[in-house]
Amino acid sequence: MLTESKLKNWTIKYGKEEKVQQIMNQYKTFVSKNKIFQEFQKAFVEFKEVCDEYKRDGNIKSGEAEQIDFFINEVDERWKNTSTELRCVQSLLEEVLTYWQRWNANYEPLQKFIIEAFEVLKKDEDTRIEFFHDLSSWREKYLHLQDTVAFLVATSDNVVGQELRDKFMVLSDNWEQLFQYIEKYLHVGDLNRTKKDYQEGLDKLDQWLKKAEDLLSNPQKVETQNIKKTLEMLMELHTEVGDMEEIFKSISRKFQHLVPELDQDEVENMMFVLKKEKENLVIIRSMIPSKIQLFHHLLSQLEAIDQGEKDILSWCKEVDKVVESVKKCTSQDELQTEYNKHKPFLSKTVNMQALLQSKNNVLQSILNNTEDKEDLDNSDIVKRMQHINTEFEKKLEAIKEMDQQMSGGIQTWQRFQDAQAALTNWLQEAQNLMTIKQVESKDNIDMHKHFFKNDSQPILTEYLKAQEALEGIVPPSE
Fold it and tell me: Which domains are delineated in the chain?
């Protein structure tokens, strides 16, 4: 009952905007904050469950059960009607407020325009043409206001409706009186607006064409970030082609409208301009896809070179570290340890050579793809690959020298140890023979003769040479 009572208060002829807004606020407070729709549905479901339980367990007569069902259906039907009207009230209130906003937005500006227009009629023709250049838009405002008043009068009470009628009648009389003097400017204003729209569209298309021509023809460095940025701009340009075609169609239609108002020279000049714009648009539209395809390919190739460069130069730095660590080795154990330690790393040299060759192949592919493209500058990527190749060759040479140093050092140490062992053995044997004080047999005499008769100089010479060779790789302090 409360909801139905509220509904009656809201479905009335409305007052001014403030009153309508007040009713809207009351509606929102009652319906939204109290959650009328949700709460009724919840209460109705609970009520039906209680009724069903009562009919099932209350031992009632069939006639009483029918009355209960009738009452439930009646409540359900009343709520359906009420909820529908509630939603309609909200829509109506929102619409009424919208029309009041339209009235406020158009009435005073239109009234001001009429007053100023009567003053302008007293001035020279150029001033009048300038002032009435947008007359058609003011006429639309007037017609719009006419519809607005009709709706507000139909939904407002008698007092407010009559006030709106009186205000609009005065304004309408002034408009009709003014319009008979300014109607001739309606065509002039439309013509000027068409010329303005034509020029604005032409300027927008021309600016876009120049931007596109610059992007497609300006020299570009074949470098990852630059190619990536240019590709993004090309993709954006590609999405704008359709809009530019629509702009061309629009200015072509406006040109057709202007033709009857232009002299022959103006028509020919505008036709020439439109023809050139169309030709340029067609050329650019055809160039963009192939350019995008080329730059997509270049970007993937450059990113491959970037990654290869990173891997190869990182390997080169590791080579420097290995070479530096080997230089500090002097003993045989140190050399052998370093050799065993770095052998797995040095075995990657073949893989690095293959990687470098693949990047050189990519570079060659880039050069082949761009050799007839004067707007693409390959100098940077060529210099980068030259630097990579030079650095790699230096490291290969360093590895070769290091390998020679390690294997040579190991061999020198081995030679020295072998010579030292031979000399030590000879001296030990000589010492053993010299310790024999008495010669007990002919065999011992023969052994002495045989041992000391043989020349021991080669053993000593080999030892001295091996020592001299070792001193060449071992610091004096060691």
Answer: 2-182 (1.20.58.60), 185-287 (1.20.58)
